[in-house]
Amino acid sequence: MSLAITGSMRLIFILIYAFSISSVCAQEYRFRLYRVEQGLPNDVVKAVAQDSLGFVWIATDDGLVKYDGQRFTTYKAAFRSQYTKAFLNTRSGRLLAIGDLDLIEIRNQVDTVIFKTVLAGARTFSDSAIWYPKSIYEDRSANIWLGEPQSAIRYDGKSMKRFDFGAENRSPVFIRSFSFFEDDNENLFAVSYRGKVFRLDKRRDEFVALEHELPADCAHVLFDQHKLYVATGTGVYEATIDDGDIRNVRQLLPVKQASYLLTSPDGALWVGTFDDDLYQVNRDSEVTWKALGYSFKGINSIYQSNEGDLWTSTDKGMVLVQSNLFELADPLSQAQFIEGIAEDATLNRIYFCNKETIVQLESSKPDGPLRRTVIYDDRNAYFQSLQVSKRGLWASSIYEVMLFSEGKLFRKWDFSSEGNFVHDIFLDSRQQLWGCQAGNANVIMINDSLRVKRYPIPSNKQNEVTLVREGPNGLYVAASGPDKYLFFKPHTGDSFRDISLPIKFSIAGDFTINDFAVQQNNVVWIASTEGLIRFGHQKIERIDLGETFTAISVSSIEILDERNIIFSNSHGLFRYDLVSNEYWLYDENSGLPSNTITGRGIFIDHKKQLWIGTSYGLARTAQSIIQNKQTTKPHCIEARVNGEGVRFIRGVQASYGAFIHLQFSSITFPENKINLQWKMQGDTLWHAMRNHQLSFTDLWPGEYNVLVRAKKNTGLDWSEPTMVSLLIAKPYWLRIEFIFFLITIILIIAWASYSVTSRLLNKRKVQLERLIEKRTTDVQRANNELMQRNAELDRFVYSASHDLSAPLKSVLGLIAVSRMENPGEQHEQYLTMMEGSVRKLEDFIRDVVSYSRNTRMPVKNEAVDFSELIQSLLNDQQYAPNFSRIDFQVEDTTGSKMVTDVMRLKIVLNNLISNAIKFHWLERENPFVKIKLMRQGNAYSITVQDNGQGIDEAHTAHVFEMFYRASESAQGSGLGLYILKETVLKMSGKVSVKSKIGEGTTFTVMLPVPAQV
Question: Mean of the pLDDT values across residues 848-856?
Answer without folding.
Answer: 60
